């Protein structure tokens, strides 16, 4: 796994210049994994092969976006924030109701923040990863606030928060707000929400 945020950027964002570099690197790696799990996406730039649900509009939405290029299938176009693979004849499975699937090989994702390469990790994601890494390294501040490490929900006054990033992140509602636009939905989830 390539680190999308380096120690110097973490220190600049958080002001934490006392945590050892090795600990910061591990916390940044864990924070990146937590964000990817929460968003159901892969943020690291690379080449991937996935079998994906095809939406009714003929588009599939890979885990590593933005998409730079598509290797297979060769007759595709980038549009709608995904890969247009076409096809109007494949209907969902009659027995299960699951959508038709297509296997694609593509290159996509983000380059490390500050690398100067495009597409670079957005500032908002960089700051979220830094804030989560800080919370990983400074759990005692959350324990002092009355939130046990590993809790799945917390309440402060009349505000209640439940999350899946782990207990040391649920207190910061701005993290969830910042990640909202990066969460990947599947066709099954979209069908259920309609």
Explain this structure to me?
Helices cover 32% and strands 20% of the residues. It is built from 6 helices and 8 strands. The protein has helices spanning 7-14, 21-39, 123-137, 139-144, 173-179, 187-193, and strands spanning 46-53, 59-60, 67-72, 77-79, 82-84, 101-108, 153-156, 159-162. A 3-stranded antiparallel β-sheet has the order 1-6-3, with no helix packed on it. Strand 4 (77-79) and strand 5 form a beta hairpin. The longest helix is centred in the first third of the chain and has 19 residues, at 21-39.
What can be said about this structure in brief?
With 194 residues, the protein is of the alpha+beta class.
Notable traits:
194 residues, 2 domains
Secondary-structure map:
Layout lengths: L6 H8 L6 H19 L6 E8 L5 E2 L6 E6 L4 E3 L2 E3 L16 E8 L14 H15 L1 H6 L8 E4 L2 E4 L10 H7 L7 H7 L1
Rg from alpha-carbon coordinates: 19 Å
Low-confidence stretches: 147-163, 188-194
Question: What is the N-to-C succession of helices and strands?
Answer: HHEEEEEEHHEEHH
Q: Give me the side-by-side strand order of the main sheet.
A: 1-6-3
Please report which band the strand proportion falls in: under 5%, 5-15%, 15-25%, 25-35%, 35-45% or over 45%.
15-25%
Helix fraction by DSSP (H/I, runs of at least 4): 25-40%
- How confident is the prediction overall: mean pLDDT? 80
Structural class of the secondary structure composition? Answer: alpha+beta
What is the helix tally? 6
How many domains make up the coordinates? 2
C-alpha termini separation: 36 Å
- Global outline: elongated
Strand count: 8
| Biggest sheet statistics | 3 strands, antiparallel
């Amino acid at each position: 796994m390539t680190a999308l945020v380096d120690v110097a950027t973490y220190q600049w964002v958080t002001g934490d210049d006392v945590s050892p570099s090795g600990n910061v690197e591990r916390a940044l790696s864990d924070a990146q994994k937590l964000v990817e799990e929460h968003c159901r996406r892969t943020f690291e730039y690379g080449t991937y092969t996935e079998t994906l649900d095809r939406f009714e509009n003929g588009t599939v939405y890979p885990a590593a976006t933005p998409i730079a290029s598509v290797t297979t299938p060769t007759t595709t176009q980038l549009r709608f924030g995904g890969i247009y693979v076409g096809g109007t004849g494949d209907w969902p499975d009659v027995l299960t109701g699951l959508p038709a699937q297509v296997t694609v090989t593509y290159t996509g994702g983000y380059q490390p923040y500050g690398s100067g390469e495009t597409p670079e990790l957005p500032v908002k994601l960089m700051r979220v990863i830094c804030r989560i890494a800080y919370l990983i390294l400074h759990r005692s501040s959350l324990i002092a606030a009355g939130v046990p490490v590993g809790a799945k929900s917390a309440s402060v006054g009349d505000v209640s928060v439940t999350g899946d990033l782990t207990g040391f992140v649920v207190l910061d509602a701005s993290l969830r707000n910042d990640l909202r636009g990066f969460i990947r939905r599947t066709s099954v989830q979209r069908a259920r929400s309609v």
